[in-house]
Design a protein that fits this description.
Blueprint lengths: L1 H8 L7 H56 L4 H13 L17 H5 L12 H21 L2 H4 L3 H33 L7 H15 L1
Length: 209
Amino acid sequence: MMMDVISWLGISDAKHIPATITGVLGFASVALTGFAAIFAWLTKQYLLRREKRNDLRAAIRAEIEVQWLMLKKAPNQEETIPIIENKLRTKGNKDYSPHFSRYPGPEIFGSIKAEIAALGREEIPLVVQFYHHLAVMDNFVIELRSAEFKSYDRDRKLLMIKDMFRMVEQATILAEKSMIVLEDLMNISQDRRLCARKAELERDNQMAT
């Protein structure tokens, strides 16, 4: 094979062949060393990116879990709506307005939004959709707590309150979907997954009652 290379280079003088072979071998050695260095660098970058991606996933999942717990502890719609409706229709309660707690802004997600591209395409749509829905919901809470809302008639108030409960349900669903995807991608152990947290929450609720 080496003689084929020498022939391809157009070298016919025998006295130049040893030097040519040395040069070719030297070039090949440098090239292989360069390729090895490039491969090592690419491997290192891949591992760093994967580690960073897993760190981002873990941080986002932890924050979504906190939000999920808040959503799960919100008043039950089936039990609460009749009570609110009764108070709204009671004579003398024209200005009645139930209190809704605001949902805190996403501190972790807010600080890493610029790095969202480091996540995988599997989780980005769900995570972004969840946080967007949370922001819309918080703005709606501000409206429900406004003086203008108190001036609305009872039917309009009740309709908006029901919309708020539906938004909470949708946010809970989006949170759970996001957590499940992140947990699968991170290969989290079963005892730390959403299903385990649900079981713990159910046990706590049973003990409380």
